[in-house]
């Protein structure tokens, strides 16, 4: 009975919260569902067709697609390296104080979204794909560092300790006693983040950080809708391709 | 002796390792070139000066009364955009996921294979859901900013469409991964599809559905901040303005509020989800 009352109270609270949210939105909602708005949205969508296929533009779009792929790739790679280095102290291998500090660092890296990192780094490094790559790497280091640290903490410590007790150096003990146990998890987390990062890399350009996003933002700003259509198609293709690739790699990596 | 020597020196997996390393390097070099990878750009004189000037304005974080009001107002706006977007996404996703649910197929009863038309309709719906979520929410927001102008509406629409795609797909997976025998028995005995769903499928998967929805709410808060960067309202829009004016103190305050907001949503969502389970 108590649980029932609690549930009813919670449901009412959630409902009131939702209503308050809708009430505080500005903007004319009646206009949105009118025939007028539907027509303008439809006009916008149909103006993407036919997508622009002039060879010069296709070359530009292909280059931007490759650039996006490269950003996601290098960003993820940097994040794997940095994440692994942060994961060792964050898993408590070197005591409680480094653990607390690196966890805080990882949380801060993770809390700031990629796009905000990109906007900040563009200020420091100028426009271009490089700040975008670092932005992806910064956020992803936070995410992967924590996941890697959790994997390390859950792995049995005995092989590592046994090697250490027999006089094996810390680096060798780590790479033969601890890391092999978590390799499947590392691979799977990395591939999962890569899928995420290709989506992020595709839009980071909105902050001026290169790739398809920058091209999209540019052409949309100039109302070049057919070019926008091509870029959107390229984005869809790229995301689909990376998902397929990553699924295939994951199946191969899993025992 | 000879055997021991050859065993010692030859790594049986070396062709694989060498190919792996070669492919890795072959991909790495052009990728590094494409990303214009050059840490030096941070240390040339002009960018050092720009970063130093920008960083110097970070402290202290802006905290005048008027600014704090703006801060709280836009943080609430962000929550409102996320929540409204999620509610609209649910309104869109639930009917779609019910229509695409293979368990509720009547033509499949007994024979085990669906008719051509129902199968095509379901495949089409799945394809539509996947299209909705393959376009990033930021791109949806850019489109809606063009169609309905700057402001909250664009953000709400962007979140509702992308999240409808994600929620629809995951709800479908949840329905179809349940034990479907109860639903099938109800359908076979002449229950209507909705009845079969409400009495056969829903009771066993409700906690999972609710828990996933709460998790998505947490994600929606994070995305609604990002959507603000293209003019879709809330905290992000204000943060972008401050960044453009290089007002570091305001940027820092916005970042701090954003972190607190995400942390609160995370705690609330975790608390609710453990309570449900």
Structure description:
The complex is a heterodimer of chains A (255) and B (277). Chain A has one domain (56-253): MetI-like fold (Orthogonal Bundle), CATH 1.10.3720. The model of chain A has no long low-confidence stretch (mean pLDDT 86). With 255 residues, chain A is an all-alpha fold. In chain A, helix 4 packs across helix 10, helix 7 (129-154) packs across helix 9 (170-204) and helix 9 (170-204) packs parallel to helix 10 (211-221). Chain A has eleven helices and no strands. The termini of chain A are far apart. Chain B is an all-alpha fold and 277 residues long. Chain B has a single domain, classed as MetI-like (MetI-like fold), CATH 1.10.3720.10. In chain B, 78% of the residues lie in helices and 0% in strands. Chain B contains eleven helices and no strands. Chain B has helices at residues 2-9, 14-34, 45-56, 65-99, 116-134, 137-148, 152-177, 181-188, 193-227, 235-244, 248-276. The longest helix of chain B has 35 residues, at 65-99. Chain B is extended, with a radius of gyration of 26 Å. The N and C termini of chain B lie far apart (63 Å). The chains are: A mainly alpha (255), B mainly alpha (277).
Key words describing this protein structure:
heterodimer, A: 255 residues, mainly alpha, MetI-like fold, 11 helices, 83% helix, B: 277 residues, 0% strand, extended
Spans of chain A of at least 5 consecutive residues whose pLDDT stays below 50 are: none
Number of domains of chain B: 1
Helix content of chain A: over 70%
Q: How big a fraction of the residues of chain B is strand?
A: under 5%
Count of alpha and pi helical runs of chain B: 11
Number of strands of chain A: 0
- Describe the biggest sheet of chain B? none
CATH architecture of chain B: Orthogonal Bundle
Secondary structure class of chain A reads mainly alpha
Quick take:
By secondary structure, chain A is mainly alpha-helical. Helices cover 83% and strands 0% of the residues of chain A. Chain A is globular, with a radius of gyration of 24 Å.
